Amino acid sequence: MACHSLPQRQRRWAIFLGAVTAAALRIVFTLLVLQVLAIPYVRLSGGVVLLWIAIRLVGKDKPEEIASPESIYRAIRIIVIADAVMSLDNIIAIAGAAQGSWPLIIFGLGLSIPIVIFGATLLVPALNRFPALIWAGAGILGWVAGELIGSDPAVAEFLRARAPAVASWHLAAAGAAVALFCGWLRVRIESSNESATV
């Protein structure tokens, strides 16, 4: 979704560089993630970042910004940050399946590079043809953000003590709703600003 507004050549570079950088960071994160994720508020922070990304993805890029180098770097940055936040559980699963074998861990994470590139190459044309898919993607990111926030040890402990009736899917649904509402609000504000400048 971060690359859908870029010209085709820049889009390919953004997808490739974003995927390679994200995969490299996954390997680094795997060294730390099992210890770091047990620290309270880490997942909460990741969920908030992912929610911010979901809101940022819904909106219009100005024509002069689409072809600019900053727009390409922005797309790469969004790909890397979103992948890093969303892949926390995947990293844990890969590390567990590999049973401590670093060659297998690196192979599993490296395998994600062609998968991400191939998937993104197929998805971007669909996003340009059907803009509603961007909203669906923002909702999914919001859902994942809500789940991530709910899985944080500090948040889970707080909910058990103060709101035991709240389930993880409640937070996931709330995350999706917040992402879509704030995204809609952002589009409204941008449209109002454009109308005011005309």
TrEMBL record:
Residues that span the membrane, as ranges: 12-34, 40-58, 78-98, 104-125, 132-149, 169-187
Alphabetic keyword roster: Membrane, Transmembrane, Transmembrane helix
InterPro entries in alphabetical order: Integral_membrane_TerC, Integral_membrane_YjbE
GO CC annotations, alphabetized: membrane
One Pfam family from the record: TerC
Annotated membrane topology: Multi-pass membrane protein
Record's subcellular location: Membrane
NCBIfam families referenced in this protein's UniProt entry, alphabetically: R_switched_YjbE
Family under the similarity heading: Belongs to the TerC family.
UniProt-recorded name of the protein: Integral membrane protein TerC
Organism name: Methylocella silvestris (strain DSM 15510 / CIP 108128 / LMG 27833 / NCIMB 13906 / BL2)
